[in-house]
Amino acid sequence: MNNLIQMFLKSQKFAKIRLLLAIITFGAITFFIFKTAPVQKDIFQVDSSGGEIIVNEGPLKGLTILVPETAYTSIVDFDITSKPFDDEGAPDLFEPISPLIHIDNQDSDAQQPLTVTIPIDIDTSTEFAMAFYFDETTHEFEAIPTLTLTNDQLQIYTSHFSNIIVSKVMHAELFDLVFMNPEKLDSGFTAGVDDFPFNNYGSELTKDGHCAGQSLAMMWYYTERKLKLGEESLHTRFDEDTPDFWLDDTNAYRFASILQDTFDFDSPQYDYYFDLLKSPDQERFFSAAYALYITRKPQLFAVYALDAHNQIAGGHALVINKISYDLNHYKIHIVDPNFNGDTNRYITYDENSGFGTYYSGKNADDITNNKGVYYTEIAHIGQSALTDYKNVQKQFDKVLNHTIGEEVFSSVQFEYLKKQADDTYQWVSLPKNLTYEAMTVDQIITNRQIGIRVIGKWQYYQTTIFKDHTPQFYSRSIDWKKLEFTVDLSLGVNQIGIYYEQLLRNPIENDYDSFYNGYYAFEITLVDDEPVVYDWDEVKRNLPGQYVELERSSGVMSSYPNMEINLSENISGETSILFFDHTQKAIIKSGRWYASNTSQGFEPGTPVLLADMFFVEDEFYVIDPAKRTITITFSDGEYIVYEQKKTPTYVYYIFHRFEMYQVSGNVYDYHYEEIINSTLSYQRQWKIDMMIPDGNSGQDEILIISNNPMYQRVIGESRSIYTSTRVVKGTSSYYVNLTHGDQFTLWIELYTFNDGEWVLNRTETIQITVDFSE
């Protein structure tokens, strides 16, 4: 009988029965889910209302998954299985204390992190436990942030699932590692090699900075591109072959900003990160050390500052790349987006007092302006558990094809002056590579200039022109203007760069803050030129006239009086002219100015010189017949620009509200709108120039823009005394006080200066009605 039993136990029939029993036994494991019911055994559904999945039997008994509301926008299936962990290649000090947990939810990433509670059995007074993702194909581990750790359970945060395994280690063994083998706590990630070659200044998309996006990008690139694919180090990968010039790293810089925009751990939607600060300093130190040791990969961390009430006052993201011991404390080494290439940054840790403070800021500008922060709290964010690696890959693909940021960064146009067949000039689109034909005058001096125009999207923006990565000059637009530049070129290839920034008004400092948009590179090749013959008689016939001051350099203010120039009709062949015709330039001879008489001018005590040209070689001046301007350059380098008088025009604007962008705060956007009708009716009260009306009063601005560079205005109201103002550079403003029930007339008189006195040129009247009852 015993022999028969033994034969049966060894038979194929019994093997099949044994397999069947195993399947039946495994299938008997029961799972429960609150709020939603499983559609079949061990497969569960969770919808947008969330829920809690609980395993009540089997090797995973006690495992729970808490799904917050709106974590998913549609129904998601969960299939949970497990098996013993058996990997002979696991690192030393890796001691699994859970089975290999496989949670299949169709690769659906949650919009809010899920809290997973895993049952364990350790002694937290001497042991530390941590969860890891495990890739069975590559046998690689990835650390998962720890929420809480007790003797019988480990809680983690994750937004996606794969294989998960929990391991434990003795506290003493981790400390010994730092002392005896610090190289085993070094990820290999190095500042100046694996970080970006620029600091975190933020951009027009992320005005407070992009520390989280920059940290995530460089950590992701190191693990996913450099280690896995063997690609070039990040510090030089996208530097456009200009290692000492970061402004042209536009694709890489926008990469960091866009990731920040989608992953801003300092925003309210990421408040759950604060939960990672609840565990003791020792556990968070062990989290950094064990993650580095097991994965040998850099880790994303967040540091926070607390206010006087012990509440979070601000945060900053950075990368931890290694841990060492120095003298009497541990050093958690940091690669900080605010300090690119700096290998000497770290946070200290002491077994008795915990973490030390760390000085940095939300962006690099804060550091420069002494607005840095001392951070006291540190949290482990990990790698992909709480970040969207799929989106990082998607944005990186756009970096590679040079389309990164096209959807979200403002557009800007570039044009240059191109000579047409009829010898006129026209603004046309500036190509990335341009062969530009220089010109000569009388075969003596070669023109080496090009006219470039920038057309930005914003009302306020700034443009800086670079040549061979050296700044030449910059200009600001604060009223939607197109900016025009004349750029000197050299024969051959010229690397011309245009750095474009958005400006925002800073009322506290009475200036504008600038924000990165991009650096636009152009290669302009200046080729040999052909002689051009000019009709000097025609040029001379168009020059005579009256010229008034348009602009002067700062040093002229105290050195030279205001002047009005009468250019004689009798210009001899000895006349000195530095001739401009848009992009053509030639020096013929030299000359000087002579004051023929003086008279009282724009304001009492300010002399006006009425000057004629005399033809004695001395100082040097420039005439631009196309723009009708004359520029005098004195021997000390100072200059004055004059503009030929022409028929003046005047356009009137009001500061008009057009869009509410913060309903609760009653905040509006404004722009200047031309006054078309002679009657203005105010039917609603609005916020003007930081003034919040009380319901019965307000204020508005009347803006006058003229092509007349200098004129005088006299503005009066039928309810008050008049105001008289001299205007420079053709723009003036007048602020009108508005009171509910007002009906009054605003009259404007505009004067121009002629033959030593102000002459009335134009009169306007505007009827104003104010009704704030709506």
**Which whole number gives the mean pLDDT?**
78
The 3D shape can be described as elongated
- State the total count of DSSP E strands: 49
Radius of gyration: 37 Å
Report the portion of residues in β strands.
Answer: over 45%
Strand order of the largest sheet: 35-34-38-39-40-32-33-37-36
- The helix content is 10-25%
User: Structural class of the secondary structure composition?
Assistant: mainly beta
Spans with pLDDT under 50 lasting ≥5 residues? 1-41, 440-446, 569-619, 658-665, 685-693
Amino-to-carboxy terminus distance: 105 Å
Q: Could you give a short account of the major beta sheet?
A: 9 strands, mixed
Q: DSSP helix count?
A: 10
What does this 3D model show about the protein?
The longest helix has 19 residues, at 211-229. The N and C termini lie far apart (105 Å). It contains 10 helices and 49 strands. The strands form 9 sheets. Strands 35-34-38-39-40-32-33-37-36 form a 9-stranded mixed sheet, with no helix packed on it. Strands 2, 5, 6, 7, 9, 10 and 13 form a 7-stranded antiparallel sheet that branches. It has 774 residues and is mostly beta strands.
